[in-house]
Amino acid sequence: MTKGKRGQMYDDDDFDDGYDDYDDDGYDAYDDHPPTKNAAPAARGAGPAKPAPQQPKPSAAVSSAPARSAAKPDPAAKALQQPAYPLAPHLAAQGQHKAAASSSGNGSGGGGAAAAAGPFRFDTPSPDDAVKAAQERRPGAAPAHSASAPPAPSLPQNKAFLRPSPMMQQQRQQAGGSGGGGGGGGGAAADAAAGGVAGLSLGGASHGPAAAGEGEALGHPAAGTRHHHAHGGPGDQAAAAPAPERPHGLHTRRPVSEYAMEPELAREVAAAAAAESAPLSSPPSTSSAAAPKSPLHLVVLGHVDAGKSSLMGRLLHELGLVSEREAHKHQRDAAAAGKGSFAWAWVLDERPEERERGVTVDVAMTRFNTDRFAVTLLDAPGHRDFVPNMIAGAAQADAALLLVDGSPGGFEAGFSEGSGGLHGTPGGQTREHAALARSLGIEQLAVVVSKLDTVGYAQERFEHIRAALLPFLRSVGFRESGLQWLPASGPLGENLVRPPADPALAGWWRGGPTVVGAIDAFAPRERAVGRPLRMPVSDVFKSRSGAVVLGGKLEGGALRPGSKVALVPAAAAGQLFAVRSIEVAGAPAHLARAGDSCEVALVAAHGGGGGAALEPGAVAAGAVLCHPDFPAVLVTRFELRIVVLDVSVPLLRGQAVTLHAHVAREEGHITALSAVLDARSGEVTKARPRCLTRGQTALVEVTAARALVLEEYSEYRALGRVALREGGRTLAVGIVTRLLE
Ligand SMILES: Nc1nc2c(ncn2[C@@H]2O[C@H](COP(=O)(O)OP(=O)(O)OP(=O)(O)O)[C@@H](O)[C@H]2O)c(=O)[nH]1
């Protein structure tokens, strides 16, 4: 599948101009927490770049991987049927990329691109076709609705989404019960969690006993009731929900500074923080029953075909989360489909179109534990048509693995620059992903050089790639202290959990970090528990017992069973909900704090909006769960401080853009060019410029076609970062400086 080495975009010169400034001034000024602690491993004999030796084709190398012996059957290993999912239709509209796709792979600039034609060709239908096909198969089409649930409204078709991986669904199923029907099984733990606090007097208007009294295992959704939300987009809100209404008290927004956490909740938060900071008694490795771990949201980025899915699939196997039996099954199925080299990628890429094409289409989400972290893993698509999905993943992430293809020509293709222009040759996604990741707040990056087996694990190749990539990563705002570098091979299992076994790699990488070691070297994100609740909703489903469950990452505040919450936008004015039960990182919990990835079962709260039940279809794409006394606001006009990326045509007032922020996506226009700023001092160098060119830092006003939830960056970083894209290219990235309308 190489799907062509296409993408776009930046000139080194542009980055030197633009991003260096951003680095020196912009980002550092925005960031209010200390630099990451992990240091890049010492250079190992950095030497001059040498031409890479001839090497076997990757596929050959992969097929020579030692066969794994048959293992005893794992009864838990069940392939779960995934419903058809909505995909962003705007992608389907990007017909112009198809042409680029089918003609790509032929030297998109950058040395060695030609050699990168590699073993997989872009000779299957474009991802756009996959999207269209998926759309044609889905919505209204979605057959099964739970008996008790009314049919969900026809789903909007343009949502990207975060999709629990099959493995995560399996974990969910196991946590939610032993497969027994009717929501029983593992409900007991959640019941205990919910019941234990249900009777507490919480005080304050915003919290009360859980309306339902009893908890429930969130389990996996009832068939046909899952709605995935990561992005809203044109038509989303209209199709998915009634016209947004502001919840109770929204018109007069209370300043965040007035917020004080409810005492009972604050006590629990403090106790959880103390438990988390207690030293680890013994390294618990991958067991999930150990002491509480810090959450880490990790996104895997990289150019198409860099080896992301294979690496993560094999890593999950090495961590004991994918059984031998499943691994064999994937190998068998992949081989039978003539895609033997993708066997490990199939652990995460389970949609038929992904398997057919070997391209990750959406963001697969799964979880695993390391010694230090409870990791939520987001495997983002590498194909440029799916950059919006990648943004949805990266917007939640605390750290990233950037996979770089070390095979001859592979790195060069992924790192190539576009020739610019609307119809110019696009470049590789290594640049765009790294720049977007940084702009979305990711400061910690482990660069994993894959496929070095194709060059006999030549250290020179590794050092050459590091030398080429480092200046670029610095130019887009990464600090060297936030970068780690390591070699690894997914299909061959080299340097994932254990040090490399192949002497050719072990010889020069002895003592260097493994992939898991690099993950454990990331610094945990500070939890923003001191702010009112915010949870952008990335997943909606109906549990077996009929409660609506919202999934997402808490970006502010904390929650416990009984907490009252509001949704913005709300399906009905003043509608409030009570948290019935919570799962954090897949396990029943009595508390969720900022930084946690959780699933929250909601019931109508008495006295809030007439107690009307929430239906999954009424949760608008881009919705955010909020503290009812300090809800987010819906905005249509706002001021951004942006850095203009590689635009071939200057940005003018009236420029159409697609806005990406947290899980929201909305169409809009740049309605005012307010000022060009000095990137270092932030001072206005030119008021009301007529246009903005690449590399410039500027204040602009943007008007969205429909209201969406945004926050000023100074209050909620994750809700205040925006990427402006158009025609499949990222024009600018920036932060929200003011909410205007
Ligand atoms: N020789 C070799 N091949 C590899 C290695 N890693 C991945 N591959 C192969 O490269 C191909 C692409 O791997 P994937 O894991 O699907 O790549 P990806 O980055 O997830 O691709 P997208 O999801 O489409 O962006 C597969 O055939 C893999 O077997 C490696 O370390 N060595």
Number of strands: 26
Low-confidence stretches: 1-163, 174-251, 282-289, 419-426
Q: Which small-molecule ligands are present, each listed once?
A: guanosine-5'-triphosphate
Overall 3D geometry? globular
Query: Could you estimate the helical fraction of the residues in percent?
Result: 10-25%
Catalytic activity: GTP + H2O = GDP + phosphate + H(+)
Region (Disordered): 1-255, 270-291
InterPro entries: GTP-eEF1A_C, P-loop_NTPase, T_Tr_GTP-bd_dom, TRAFAC_GTPase_members, Transl_B-barrel_sf, Transl_elong_EF1A/Init_IF2_C
Biased composition (Gly residues): 176-188, 196-206
List the helices and strands and how they pair.
Elements (H helix, E strand, L loop, with lengths): L11 H19 L27 H6 L25 H4 L2 H8 L24 H11 L24 E3 L1 H11 L10 H12 L28 E2 L7 H5 L22 H15 L16 E9 L5 H11 L5 H13 L15 H6 L5 E7 L3 E7 L7 H8 L4 E7 L4 H5 L14 H11 L5 E6 L8 H17 L7 E5 L15 H7 L5 H6 L13 E9 L5 E6 L4 E2 L4 E5 L8 E8 L2 E3 L2 E2 L3 E8 L19 E3 L7 E11 L6 E2 L3 E6 L2 E14 L6 E4 L3 E2 L4 E13 L11 E6 L2 E11 L2
Parallel strand pairs: 1-4, 3-5, 3-6, 6-7, 7-8
Antiparallel strand pairs: 2-9, 4-5, 9-10, 9-17, 10-16, 11-15, 12-13, 12-17, 13-14, 13-16, 18-24, 18-26, 19-23, 20-21, 20-25, 21-22, 21-24, 25-26
Bound molecules: guanosine-5'-triphosphate.
The site of guanosine-5'-triphosphate has 28 residues, from helix 2 and helix 10.
